[in-house]
Amino acid sequence: MKKEEYQLFLIRHGETEWNLERRLQGQTDTSLSKYGKEQVLKLADKLKDTGIKLILSSDLKRAKETSEQISRSLGVETIYHPGLREIHLGEAQGILESELSSIFGEDSYSAWKSSDRIHDQFRFPGGESKSEAESRIIETILNLLKMYDKKNIAICSHGFVLSRFYRHFSLNELSPSKLENCEVAELFLSLEIQEKNLHAIKIN
């Protein structure tokens, strides 16, 4: 059994117009706003001394536009993967947060916004449950780490799934319930490799 150590930089994409409007995006393919592009330029400059060797990114536009700028700034390769997309919100995609209760029931807004595990099976019609999205992002990231021989890696993705990945493994009880646009969460991840399988055992 071999143990590998990784330094991960979890990066949420820059701001979009739908973020400003508080409109649910899910897997809708929205682009960065003007301010979002400015956020990314500033972040890319801040990341120059981190030693990042590879970027793993969602293939949705807002994440691609974020990772492309960081990739150019750092001079590193970016790998795009659909498994790094945001949670699919089904019929709620494109709906304003303020309209959720009237369309999907009075408890839908609180169930969606809650970080309590009792709401992990909540889903909007036609969408993923919270637990399904969490399982997807964990499986995708661990499989990608196995495929690429880099130890300092940036993962450019989305607020819900990145926060769930962080919380799933973190030993810190103050794990963020959600990353803000262009916010970075830095994690140190120890992995056991046995029979070509990868198992996360600790994050500090």
TrEMBL record:
It holds the Pfam family His_Phos_1. GO terms for cellular component: cytoplasm. GO terms for molecular function: phosphatase activity. SUPFAM superfamilies: Phosphoglycerate mutase-like. Substrate binds at R12, H13, G14, E15, T16, E17, W18, N19, R62. The active site is at H13, E86. It comes from the Bacteria. InterPro entries: His_Pase_superF_clade-1 (IPR013078), His_PPase_superfam (IPR029033), PG/BPGM_mutase_AS (IPR001345), PGM_Phosphatase (IPR050275). This is Phosphoglycerate mutase. Gene3D superfamilies: Phosphoglycerate mutase-like.
